[in-house]
Design brief:
With 350 residues, the protein is α+β, with helices and mostly antiparallel strands. It has 10 helices and 15 strands. Keywords: Acyltransferase, Arginine metabolism, Transferase.
Length: 350
């Protein structure tokens, strides 16, 4: 069985194994033992509430309880850009016109921006290839929204997610080759490694501050602005289901889109509900339990947050889970849990 839970100090080796599977383009999850160890320490302090909310980095792992293997990882950073610069390109528009010549042109531009500084960030989502089936990806990605809905006071009003940008089959970034290489004079993977280690001062030192015309870039670079890596497309769809959307900000290296939302407008904030664990709770639907709508269910314990997906449905403020599910959540009958339908309702109740 699978459970998403708060990471703990014993997960470092398994986390390194997951990071070794990721590949390039995800700067927050590199197979660097010291970096992962430091991040794990911050994550443990975050769940223990021994550091301020804006410095927290909540990391969650998906555990296969039958084998003890880690199947995936994801995270929420309390706020970005407060200790080190947080850069993006903002896509803008410049208009040039001449009434005398009857010429009117609209040009897309890229502005180097720190606009998203201070936002809460969803990051580090990775599911091991062996587990990419069924509802596993949804369980891992959407666990973070249930956590935010349970503890909204810990996060800022704006939520963002930087998506991995498009890469060619050989692993190169057409956008970086068309723009970044001219300023950094190093290959994409080297820049990727430097940013993952927090060495970002070179961005401000080397990147031009004036807006750049998109039309001046090679066609291959222009075509991938705002596009995601092939393996990231499902993750983008899941985030958009939960209320995030693209507002014209992209990564400065690979031009991957930055999705945004107001925390107060997330589906989980609107639709998730508390429910009391009750063995005698009546099911919401009749008939074959296999046809029941899948639900996300989490405990309400910040220090030992745990979440599962179940076919049990809440009814009248109560939900019945079997003994195995109670064990996964470390809950007992009478405890309160938080519930959310795994998939957005197509026909909301009136």
């Amino acid at each position: 069985m699978l459970v998403v839970r708060a990471i703990n100090a014993n997960d470092l080796d398994a986390l390194y194994g997951l990071a070794s599977q990721v590949g390039t383009g995800m700067t927050t999850l590199k197979p660097d033992m010291k970096m992962l160890g430091d991040r794990l320490a911050i994550a443990c302090a975050s769940f223990a509430e021994t550091i301020p909310p804006e410095k927290r980095d909540y990391m969650f792992v998906m555990e296969d309880t039958d084998t003890g293997r880690l199947a995936g990882v994801c995270a929420i950073k309390g706020a970005v850009g407060l200790d080190e610069p947080f850069y993006n390109y903002r896509i803008g528009t410049l208009v040039h016109s001449s009434r005398e010549l009857d010429v009117f042109t609209r040009m897309e531009t890229l502005y180097l921006s720190n606009d998203l500084t201070g936002s809460t960030e969803l990051c580090s989502l990775f599911l091991h290839p062996d587990y990419r089936s069924g509802n596993n990806g949804k369980l891992l990605s959407k666990s973070r929204f249930l956590f935010i809905a349970q503890f909204p006071q810990l996060f800022t009003e704006k939520l963002i997610a930087e998506m991995r940008g498009y890469q060619a089959p050989d692993g190169s970034s057409p956008f970086y080759e068309g723009l970044g290489r001219h300023f950094f004079k190093m290959d994409f993977h080297h820049v990727d490694d430097l940013t993952s280690l927090g060495k970002k001062s070179f961005i401000a030192e080397l990147m031009p501050r004036q807006p750049m015309y998109v039309a001046y870039l090679p066609d291959e670079a222009q075509e991938v602005i705002g596009k995601v890596h092939l393996s990231t497309a499902p993750a983008r769809r899941l985030l958009e289901q939960e209320g995030l959307h693209f507002e014209g900000y992209v990564d400065i290296f690979d031009a991957g889109p930055v999705l945004q939302a107001r925390v107060s407008e997330l589906r989980a904030m609107r639709d998730s509900m508390p429910a009391v664990l009750d063995a005698d709770a009546a099911p919401e639907v009749c008939g074959d339990a296999s046809q029941a709508e899948p639900y996300l269910v989490s405990n309400t314990d910040l220090k030992d947050f745990r979440m599962i997906v179940t076919s049990a449905n809440p009814h009248s403020g109560k939900i019945a889970l079997d003994d195995d599910e109670l064990h996964l959540l470390r809950c007992h009958h009478g405890d309160t849990v938080r519930t959310l339908s795994l998939n957005p309702r197509k026909h909301p109740h009136v």
